[in-house]
Amino acid sequence: MRAALGILYGLIRAKRILAPVGRVLITPLRSAGRFALKVIGVPAYRAVFFVKRQIGRVLLPAKNRATYLVSNRYAIHVAVAAVAAVAGTANVSGGEVRAETFGTESMLYALVVQDDSASVEVVSAAANPSLNNISYFEEDGTIDPRAHLDFHSLDQDYVTTTVGGSAVSSPTIHEGGDSVAPRTNVESYQVADGDTLYGISDRFGLSLSSMLWANNMTVRSVIRPGQTLKIPPVDGVLYVIKKGDTLSKIAKTYGADQERIISFNRLSDSDDLTVGEQIVLPDGEPPTPVAVSRPAPVSQLFSDKPGSTTSSSRGSATGKGNWKWPTDWRVITQYFGWKHTGIDVDGDYTTHSYAASDGVVIYSGWRNGYGYTVEVEHGNGLVTRYGHHSKLYVKAGDAVKMGDLLAQTGTTGRSTGTHLHFEVIKNGKFQNPLDYVR
Predict the structure, then answer these.
(1) The domain 292-435 belongs to what CATH superfamily?
(2) Has residue 148 got a pLDDT over 60?
(3) Which residue has the higher pLDDT, 211 or 150?
(4) CATH of region 240-283, choose from 3.40.50, 3.10.350, 1.10.10, 1.10.8
(5) How would DSSP label each residue in 78-147?
(6) What's the rounded Cα separation, in Å, for the pair 128 and 363?
(7) How confident is the model at residue 178 (pLDDT cuts 50, 70, 90)?
(8) Is the pTM here over 0.70, yes or no?
């Protein structure tokens, strides 16, 4: 109680002290406010009121007249008659009248009917194909290859043996690489962190096969930082002259041109050979025999109907030797020939593509015509190409072993059904894939 009384006593004393000071401070402001209201506020209010009253005198009669015009029943009749006249004129001047197009050119037709057929442009996204299985099998279990084909032939502008960003037969040297100018001598390169065999060969404008041959390696070889590699000047083979060698024999054995060997190595003639000297065989390749397996009977390839659970019809993707069947099913719907650069193997969105042999992925992405494509280099000038996928699982530079998963079957690119288009390219030329896989 005493505290409350003390507070009240304090407030009373504060009022007595502060009241005179407040009056001194507020008096000038109060005078200024009254002056502003009298000189500015009142005249401004009167001006606004005057303008508003004058505008009302002008607009109110016009508003009444406009309301009368719209609400008059005769005005509505006149508007309907005008619309009918305009529509009739447009129909009469529309030109020839045909039964199937009667009334389609009129204004009323355009107002009532929304025509969705007049599309300016249709854009489809190739990156998101519709996952509807389009098998080559008919409902009765038979196959009609004419219904589902791809059209990869040599007369198509997109069909090429160029792989991995460079040509198999004559790759170009990339700008920004370690050596842009044409090279004539063998160079040495020290492997750095993050290097791959494919990356080094691409940097110097060489095929992976040439790099492997020059360093006595295979696609399974592992390189380590600090290791020194030989870099040949061009694609081909580095050969050391042995006793009894002749230039013609060397050229024939390695598939190289004798005159080009003389010119590139600056030899005076075909007899200008020194035992122990290393020469370059441009575009040559080691004499590696191609293993050809025995053809499977046609009855095995087309034996079972879709839906069969036996492994012989669509089979396991197993093979013999160093090559493996590249997909899950085994139904061939189109063979290799002069109008077709590979083989087509039926599949759906549950099947996949596999590496036919050990190698390095040199391309993984979209190729015109082929759709989503994977290309694998296997050494000895051999490259395999897998086309029309719906999804890719590898990227360029990945080392793969025989049977490793590459992609999911699809129908992207120039394709009318879910299948694998499989090609084998050797030194820039298409080969019959059935000479390598069975």
Answers:
(1) Glucose Permease (Domain IIA) (2.70.70.10)
(2) no
(3) 211
(4) 3.10.350
(5) HHHHHHHHHHHHHHHTT----GGGTTTTSHHHHHH----S--S-----TTS-------SB-TTS-B-GGG
(6) 20
(7) very low
(8) no
